[in-house]
Amino acid sequence: MSSPGTLAFCGRLLRRQLVLAVRRPIEIGNPLLFFAMVVALFPLGLGPAPDKLADFAPGILWIIALLSNLLTSDGVFRSDFDDGSLEQLMLSPQPLYMSVLSYVTAHWLITGLLLALASPVFALMLNLPTGAIATLFLSLLLGTALLSLLGAIGAALTVGLKRGGMLISLLILPFYMPVLIFGSAAVKAAVTGAPAGPYLAIIGAMLCLAVALAPIAIAAGLRISVDA
């Protein structure tokens, strides 16, 4: 029996990861619950003044999205490493570059995409002007995909460690900073009426670069972790 093509194999791998996530709904609900809890806490700390909340809303929403992504990055390869299927995947004839893209895509679909879809509700809770909500959605759509790629690099390097969550933060958080800066700047520009397109274009350019290079780093990190 012939082995499936690369695209068919990656499609099956992506479907497998999504099915596993659906069977563990806590993995899907945790980022959204964390997002909702922190958004609800900020008015208690800053005060309920609508103008003050609106000023801080772009930065608040982006920081929470970044932390939500960071909290889930450790589990991208963890379960497959523990049961040995990750090692079998690396021995398969399929290119590891494409396989890790399937893992990252699944992680983005169950974290970043859901956060982007839910962000308008949280934005209204923080009194973000309705004219900036579309920019917030687009910036999170692009930015969370970039965060998933960067987070997967740290996950690959620490998957062999029993408690790699804190180490991922130390390794990857500095690379998250440009995404946070340009993402929140795009939303702030939309709030003030300035063009947000240049900031979104920069995030898109970084995402294209990450799609080209991050899977190479992820594959190298997995080989190091599995062979160690």
Automatic annotation (TrEMBL):
InterPro entries: Cyt_c_biogenesis_CcmB, Cyt_c_CcmB_bac. It is a multi-pass membrane protein. Keywords: Cell inner membrane, Cell membrane, Cytochrome c-type biogenesis, Membrane, Transmembrane, Transmembrane helix, Transport. It comes from the Bacteria. Its main location: membrane. It is found in: Cell inner membrane. Coiled coil: none annotated. The chain crosses the membrane at residues 32-50, 98-126, 132-159, 166-187, 199-222. Belongs to the CcmB/CycW/HelB family. Required for the export of heme to the periplasm for the biogenesis of c-type cytochromes. This is Heme exporter protein B. It comes from Candidatus Seongchinamella marina.
